[in-house]
Amino acid sequence: MNYQITLLPSGETYFADENQSILQAALNNSIMLPHACKSGCCGACKAQLRSGTTRSMQENSAINLTENDQHEILLCCHTPQSNLSIYLPQYSGQTNQVVKKIKARIDHIRICNHYAVIHLQLPSKKTFTYQAGQYIDIILQNGQRRSYSIAGYNANTHQLIIHVRYHEGGAFSAPIFDGRMQCKDMLQIEGPLGSFQLSDQPKDLIMLATGTGLAPLMAMLSCLSEQHFSQNIYLYWGVATEQDLYDAQLLDQLCDQLSNAKWTPVLSRPASDWTGKQGYVQQIALQQHADMSQYLVYACGNPQMIAQAQALFTSQANLATNAFFADNFTPTI
Ligand SMILES: Cc1cc2nc3c(=O)[nH]c(=O)nc-3n(C[C@H](O)[C@H](O)[C@H](O)COP(=O)(O)OP(=O)(O)OC[C@H]3O[C@@H](n4cnc5c(N)ncnc54)[C@H](O)[C@@H]3O)c2cc1C
Ligand code: FES
Fold it and tell me: For the residues 243-250, what does the mean pLDDT come to?
């Protein structure tokens, strides 16, 4: 059975099946509600249920009991059981962005330690537009999905770049690293997805990435460079060893194109001759920016880093709670 979902305050409506999550139904209607993991882990899709009844598809791990009492629900974990009104102050209405399923060809794979930079060739006849910070889903042959942030897209060549971290036994990443998946192989992708985007506030920026969390930040740097952004940007990129700094050269180039951008590598397991920063990105950023009251922060990658950074910066460095933007790379399974 289909139920009508009304989003407040935008007043937008759409229909959702009783067996489908409220979030998935919105995405199927190209309504880009805030989300990231789609599995109840990150809390990005949290909303207030103003009227109607829902059914939980699983335990709401990102919601505590007090929030539950206030009718907070995770849209990725709840199905409608009646018509619903849902309050989502962080969603201002349709962006007219069309989510498409596209066949893409693997054009180039560069492997560096546990990371791969992959260029996908999209068909030239289909237009693809996205906002820096968004991601695509790769739909595997068994229908499972794996999410990858867009590190760049060239509208002239129709090439889209993703960064892939190796996971042992990974349904998508392992075949890339052991050669079962190669150039010229075709992939089914869906996108653009996600609500991690640049704010238009003209403030200095702190950017934090762990591992492939760098990907959406690179897209953002390119976008800021095109906009001739002139505020300061401090990017901290955390990986285990120096060999894991898989895109350092391109990052240098991107920072050179901006008037006031600087990036700092932070290694958690450096070799004995490493003279750069050591530890965790959130700690190094806090050491270097004791007062963050005038900054916006974008954090991307490991969910623990993101949770710690948000707690540290808001409690110890005066960062406003609405000045922290994040994209959690939660595992699919
Ligand atoms: C919005 C979003 C954007 C993302 N963007 C990127 C990106 O740009 N680049 C990227 O590399 N990843 C990204 N991720 C994470 C990626 O989608 C998952 O890590 C995915 O599960 C990896 O698929 P796989 O087939 O390699 O491994 P899977 O088959 O999913 O898992 C294999 C094994 O590895 C473990 N595992 C998988 N992912 C993780 C993880 N992140 N941390 C710890 N253990 C894990 C699993 O538990 C399992 O045991 C993103 C996730 C989200 C939600
Ligand atoms: S908790 Fe719903 S998208 Fe992460």
Answer: 97
In the chain, DSSP assigns E strands to 2-8, 13-17, 46-51, 54-56, 72-74, 78-80, 84-87, 100-112, 115-121, 135-139, 145-149, 152-154, 159-165, 186-193, 204-210, 233-239, 261-267, 277-278, 295-301, 324-328
Distance CA 323, CA 201 (A): 10
Q: What is the mean pLDDT of residues 64-70?
A: 54
233 and 275 in a single domain? The answer is yes
- For ligand 2, say whether the CB of 220 is within 6 Å of any of its atoms: no
Checking if the pLDDT of 259 tops 50, the result is: yes
**Could you tell me the distance, in angstroms and rounded to a whole number, from the CA of residue 104 to the centre of ligand 1?**
20
CA nearest 223: which of 184, 193, 195, 258? 258
The pTM (predicted TM-score) of the whole model is 0.89
Q: Tell me, what amino acid is at 119?
A: H
Residue 154 or 126, more confident: 154
**Model confidence over 34-64: pLDDT tens digits?**
887 888 887 888 999 999 999 998 765 566 5
Are residues 82 and 154 both part of a single domain? no
- Among 39, 244, 329, 333, say which to mutate for ligand 1: greatest number of ligand atoms within 8 Å of CB: 329
The total number of structural domains in the chain stands at: 3
Q: If you average pLDDT over residues 225-244, what whole number do you get?
A: 97
CA of 108 to the centre of ligand 2 (A): 32
Q: What is the CATH number of the domain that holds 112?
A: 2.40.30.10
Q: Percentage of residues in the chain with pLDDT exceeding 70?
A: 95
Would the CB of 42 count as within 6 Å of ligand 2? yes
Instruction: Measure 92 CA to ligand 2 centroid, in angstroms.
Output: 18
